[in-house]
Protein: Succinate dehydrogenase hydrophobic membrane anchor subunit
Organism: Palleronia pelagia
Amino acid sequence: MAYMTDRKRAEGLGSAKSGTDHFWSMTKSSIGLLILVPLFIFTFGSALGSGYEQVVAYYSQPFPAIVAALTITVGWVHFKSGAQTMIEDYSHGLTRHLLIAGVTCISYAAIAAGLFALVRLAI
């Protein structure tokens, strides 16, 4: 019977050295969303129920357009990071890599589509 310390038994079986990065990424994006979502609701609520011309004029102003763009971007980046963590925890092999690539592509495509729609609305 070998007498090993807990550290010696766990050596080489530890983290893949990316968990801390995911944690801080999720923490930063959730703090950003904590600030951005109420601002987005406030700015979007002002335009809600208005006609098309009023909405275009409203989102031509810099503050509502910037808040909407930041909310779209930070929200989808937060989604991507959370979905990637979930996929890494519950799937293995080729499926894991394909799912992560798919989620990444969908997230960046949604960011691009949202920002494109916002630019088209603002210009």
Notes: The two ends are 74 Å apart (CA to CA). Residues 68 and 118 are 8 Å apart (CA to CA).
